[in-house]
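INFO  loader      accepted 1 record
INFO  loader      residues=271
INFO  predictor   begin
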Amino acid sequence: MHFQRPPMIWLQKNRYNTQANTSESFFPAPIYIIRCKNFVYFRLLRIFAETNSKLMRKALLSIPKKFWLLTFVIVCILTACSKKDEKAHCIMPAGTTLEEGDIVLRKGTGLTSRAVRIADGGSDFSHCGIIVDSCGRKMVVHAVPDEPDFEGDVDRVKMERPEDFFSTIRASKGCVLRYRDRETAEKSARLAYGIYKRGTLFDDDYNDSDTTKMYCSQLVAHVYQKCGIDITNGIRHDAILPGVKFSHVIYPSDFLRCRRLKRIVTFQDTQ
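INFO  predictor   done
INFO  writer      dumping tokens
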């Protein structure tokens, strides 16, 4: 996919450290300083520089100049509406029992999450993962961009605790779905764990025909498909954002329509 950077009067690229979502993790992000009289132009490109989402950068870069003011206003509104927690906590109810193969959905808190939900027609959920067993402990395996665990970390399939997956840093709403046949669910979970162990990278092209890299809902659908189960009902979508279009995409919300999946619990942040 090719896209053009907007014309710039003067451009200087610098690098600086931006604090990530935890106080102990730092990672570099580019900043573009524009010397021009157009305040909106400067601020929009500053927003572009400070976002770590490749998807959002592609969308911002493609916007015609005549729409910069409108885009600037919209982005500012969305950013202002983002919840900033003084103290992060897990929104999943205490005592929730998770089993291997459970599909976990969440509504994210960032701009990328909003973009996914807009493309999906206003869905409640923007990201998903699958529960696996790791040394007797239930963990979430999911393919995710823009969530580095350490400096220099790449976008990849990662594994983390459910408490971190459903932390208010990342989630404002969640849902757990369960496949009715336990043997199939557990086999799917083992396949997902193997994909994580291989160090599979995140697929920025959202191409579900290529399994060398994966995005979140592709990963979940793929491991069940390997067990002979189509939990998407064959549904695919064209995801369209300003200047960005992906074809044949699986949304996290597609799993909600599968009759073989039982909704165990839905929850949201109440604090």
